[in-house]
Amino acid sequence: MLLALGATALVVVGLLWEVVAAPLGEQLARHRARRQVVPTPDYDPGRERRAEARARQLLKSCVNDEEWGMYRDLGFIRVWGLQTERPGGHEAAAGTPYAYLIYPHRPILAYLPQTGRLLNEYCVAFPDETRPYGSARLPDSDDVLAKWMALTGDERRLIETANLHLPGRQLDPRQIKRDLWRLRQWERERAKVAVTR
Amino acid sequence: MKFLRMKPGHGEVLIAEGDVDVREQEQQLVEEFRRQLDAGMWAAVPLSGAGRRTAQLARSFAEVPRDAERVIFFPRAAGG
Question: What is the pTM for the complete model shown?
Fold first, then answer.
């Protein structure tokens, strides 16, 4: 009788262990994970500023004076498109010159300078998955330079890589219109200065 | 010729430098170029001419102009 009870008790304990062991192990692993010290690189604003200053110098050394002045004064660069087909297959735009606005860490915008018509937004990023300081994001000016090099070096390749959206998805069209107006003013001022020299 | 690599939190970093007319140094540059492309980088050579400036994307070291002063590596583009 005792033997039978003992055997039954052992079986019950064994079955219970099967049920309880897995959740217990999971709880233990979670507890250990919570207590584990995960090394996270501290955000250092000084380092980010130095990185941006270095990136600005590199950008300045690659683009021409007009593009550098545009970025310094307005915060974006205009690059003229060179494809024979218009971006996004806009038939109405065929044959007319088009251009892109490059902003740091924002989509590239294609538009028609003659009319100010916005064509497309191209969402593209250059994530560095090695994340040397915990972030995959390049400094602002490096992001602009990467877009500029990719656009002027192989426009089609970059455009085909990017996600295409209609204008207004991420960039506020009113802001873009203001930026285009600022660009026209800026070019006017620049032309005046060039004449007086 | 200098190889520069864009890096988050740092700006550009000099990763290699050599004279393409010196065989050993050229070989080192070729190997570093391959290493960077294998690591998922794009390579661009800034070109300076009269007026408009552009860049040339290079898919192999052979596409880099012999007189280029620098090649800039940056992470491959991805749809954002």
Answer: 0.82
